Amino acid sequence: MIDPNAATLLEVRDLHATVNGVPILKGLNLTVRAGEVHAIMGPNGSGKSTFSKVLAGHPAYEVTGGEVLFEGRNLFELEADARARAGVFLAFQYPVEIPGVTNSAFLRLAYNAKAIADGREELDPLEFDDLVREKAKLVEMDPSFLDRSVNDGFSGGEKKRNEILQMAILEPKLAILDETDSGLDIDALRIVAGGVNALAAPGRAIVMITHYQRLLNYIVPDHVHVMADGRILKSGDRSLALELEERGYDWVTGARQAA
Amino acid sequence: MSAPGIPFPSLATVALPEVPAAGSGDWPARIVESARAAAGRLPVPTPRDEDWRFTDVAQLAKQSYLVEAVPSDLPSAEVLRPLLLDEADGARLVFIDGRFAPALSDTGALAAGVRLVALSDVLSWGLGGSTADGDAGTAAEVRAHLARHVGFEADFFSALNTARLGDGAVLVADRDVQVAGAVHLLFLSTGRPAPLAIQPRVLVVAGAGSELTVVEEYAALGESMVFTNAVAECVVGPNASLHHVRLQRENRASFHVGRCAVSIARDGRYRSVSVNIGARLSRLDLNVTLNGQGAQAHLDGLALLDARQHSDSHTLLDHATPDGSSRQLHKCVCDGGSHAVFNGRILVRPDAQRTDSAQQSRGLLLSPKAQVNAKPQLEIFADDVKAAHGATVGQLDGDELFYLASRGLPAAQARKLLTYAFAAEVIERIPVRSLVARLAAQVMARSGL
What is the spatial distance between Cα A73 and Cα A21, in angstroms, rounded to a whole number? Predict the structure, then answer.
């Protein structure tokens, strides 16, 4: 949903970042407005996942230059947990298993941490149970998954559905979906995409990071960006993704090298 | 400097008028005599002994101790109530400073075929055969098993406890009796006068085909220093099932030494969860012998330590017969400058063919000064055996912490949650719900920052 008058949620300017001293992001620029759906595509090693982890605040990634404003505020002033409470959400490419912590307890702690930050009432386990069962329907998740340890023994598709359930519980302003489609068969992808589409809202922006055009058949982006070597080389609308599919990434990355 | 009392090395051998059953030449007196002789002969262990390499009892051994508590007011109902277990209502014995406290105990809801009595009562029956006041069946079980399993001839602390045999708990379940809920053996110390040496004793006999759960708990009512030297013996009859929870939460000034010897008969099942939370220094030796074909043992343990606490668990799984199985999960959580030791010895004797044994030991270090020493020790003399073991020591997982942070959980809360989850795997194996909840709250209150 493109609305030129919508507020800017995320402003990334000339972002540089390293992992273990190796430069990965090398001058990335991106503007995301409320209500928009963006897709960032690119070959392996282009820095897509690094970008998502830098936004979420992973401690292994060091920002070496540039700035990121979230609702006009310097995102890097906030620790990872504070970013989450402020409304930044990352759906992990590889969701982490946490044996010994039940999914429902985890979801409630996350919900309540945000509720406290927003000045809302915390929910007790019974009240939360009603909410979470309702939200679980969005991703067609059986309630028995709520009593199991977080992601422990979940299949790939179940883990990704659990990520979207967390998104539904936390109702973020900016949701970054890191390769949420990878490893999913079509049925699982349809369920996950259905959950994401149901959560699309005028005040919320979604940034999908993906290697495959297939996802964009289910979640239709307003903007498509092609990333390579740590920066965005080309931006366009939906048709860019289709063109990429036809001509391959070399079309963009090779063109740059030739230039 | 000269504290009143008995120097530690003489605790077993200094004759005091109140030592029971001396002189008459009957059975308990003979046991006490040989235990005294053993305690006089055996040296106090030092870190030069391989079994005591990481645990130095010098601080404990340099003290003098009093052996008789000052009779004091019993704890009030308000003090006692939070220490009791709903599941053991009407099935508990309470001891104050090692002495049976009938007024605090309640055996009113015991199932038929279950006997729960104080050892001091049994000894007063005079086990010579004239059990006019007592019950002959219980007396016979005590005579058959007391001090028969713990091997006091080769262990200083067992010898010391047996030399001062006086009081404790005796629990006997008859053949095929199923005990709902749990039996609670609660040993409370007041530490008056300090320093006090206490020698609690426990004997549990699960008759053939019986099924019961016992919680053996040591806790402090005050802050003064106590030396508790507890010995338990458990006998699991053919095809019987015994759940044994052992909970040590002494105060931080105290020393706790525990011995537990278990013998499992054919097709018997013994499951234990040992939790060490308290004491400045604690040592537990849990020796389990699979004495009949198809016997099963599950030994789970948790040490949860901080500050300067030191806790050492030594376990022995002695597979003496064929077709036995054993499972073991031991976890240590160390914060501050604490130190946990785990030594898990598994002995598979030549006859113990088709033994199936697996041991897991995991340590979690919450601070750079904390320390865990974990040592699996497998000695296998049979040739058709499955024996798996693994030991890991690490810190909280960075990916897990980031995952929780990315969902908005503050760092301190994330650390608590993951520490709890680590400990919960052991705690949740306790088959007493109210105790699980109590321990869970305790872990959450203590772990993290």
Answer: 27
pLDDT tens digits along B148-163: 999 999 999 999 999 9
For testing contact with chain B, the best of A98, A132, A173, A176 (most B CBs within 10 A): A98
Sheet architecture: strand order including A88-91: A88-91, A174-178, A205-210, A37-41, A223-228, A231-236
* Residue B410 to residue B402: CA distance in whole angstroms: 10
* R_g of chain A, CA atoms, integer Å: 18
What distance in Å separates the CA atoms of residue B25 and residue B290, rounded to the nearest whole number?
Answer: 33
- A222, A167, A226: which is closest to A192 by C-alpha? A167
**Cross-strand pairs, A207:** A38, A176
CA A154 to chain centre: 20
Q: Which residues contact B425 (CB under 8 A, 6 or more apart)?
A: A99, A100, B329, B331
pTM of the model: 0.87
Using a CB–CB cutoff of 8 Å, tell me whether A33 touches chain B. no
- The CATH architecture annotation of domain A8-258 reads 3-Layer(aba) Sandwich (3.40)
Inter-axis angle of helices A186-199 and A125-138, nearest 10 = 120
Tell me which chain A residue has its CA closest to the CA of residue B411. Answer: A81
CB neighbour list of residue A170: distance below 8 Å, 6 or more residues apart: A84, A89, A110, A111, A114, B407, B408
Residue B341 pairs with which residues in a beta bridge? B312, B373
Q: For residue B412, list chain A residues with Cβ-Cβ distance below 8 A.
A: none
Q: Would the CB atoms of B421 and A101 count as touching at under 8 Å?
A: yes
Q: Map tokens 């369920």 to a residue.
A: A191
Q: What is the mean pLDDT of residues A108-117?
A: 96
Q: What's the DSSP call for residue B69?
A: P
| Assembly ipTM | 0.95
pLDDT at A259: 46
Distances (CA, A) of B118 to A226, B20, B166, B198: 79, 14, 10, 16
B417 and A109 within 8 Å at the Cβ level: the answer is: yes
pLDDT of residue B19: 46
Q: Is B99 exposed, middle or buried (CB count within 10 Å of its CB: 0-12, 13-18, 19+)?
A: middle
Contact B401, B369 (CB under 8 A): no
Residues 6+ apart with CB under 8 A from B52: B45, B46
Q: Is A100 in Cβ contact with B422 (below 8 Å)? A: yes
